Amino acid sequence: SNLSWLGYGCLKGDGTVITVNAIGAALQTLYILVYLYYSPAKRPVLLQVLLLLAVVVTGCGYFTILVDAGTRLAHLGLFCSVFTISMYLSPLADLAKVIRSKSTRCLSFPLTVTTLVASSSWTLYGLQLHDPYITVPNVPGIVTSLVRFWLFRRYRPEQDKPYSPLPA
Fold first, then answer.
1. pLDDT for 64-96, tens place per residue?
2. Is residue 166 domain-resident?
């Protein structure tokens, strides 16, 4: 995601998008390297990293070679938007589990706060620039965060039943 948005920022010449996503891409690369270093099963993790790298290289090749320069920004903006929307909607898979179990144990409150702050900030920035590729995909982040806050309020952690050890 960061690499795609970094490409979008470079094509558009937007220093804010470039800076934020360059830092994000560097931190995520560092995370992957540390994870790979400490992972006991190095081969499957390395294969996943190589597959991800192949996808990134293929995407760069597609947008550089096959998409003409006049529509490249719009195509990349649309790609980044779809990717961002899918990222923000992914926690919805846990909502049925939360409602069924009446427990928010599988949701992260700090991640919900961070998602609301980040998606709100990007939405406001996109509105300021009149850039629908930045504005539109961040609105679902706000909506899903508000839904998760409602679930935290509805199913408070103190209502959760404590785990009991399995009988021996």
1. 788 787 888 898 899 899 989 988 888 788 888
2. no
**Within this chain, do residues 111 and 55 fall inside the same structural domain, yes or no?**
no
Q: What φ, ψ does residue 77 adopt, rounded to 5°?
A: -60, -40
Model pTM above 0.85: no
HSE of 36 in the Cβ direction (CA atoms, 13 Å)?
A: 14
Composition of the chain by helix, strand, coil, percent to 5: 80, 0, 20
Asked if 1 and 62 sit in the same domain, the reply is yes
**148 and 97 together in one domain:** yes
Find all residues with CB under 8 Å of 107, minimum gap 6, and list them. 91, 94, 98, 148, 151, 152
- Total structural domains in the chain? 2
- For the chain, the straight-line distance linking the first and the last C-alpha, in angstroms and rounded, comes to 46
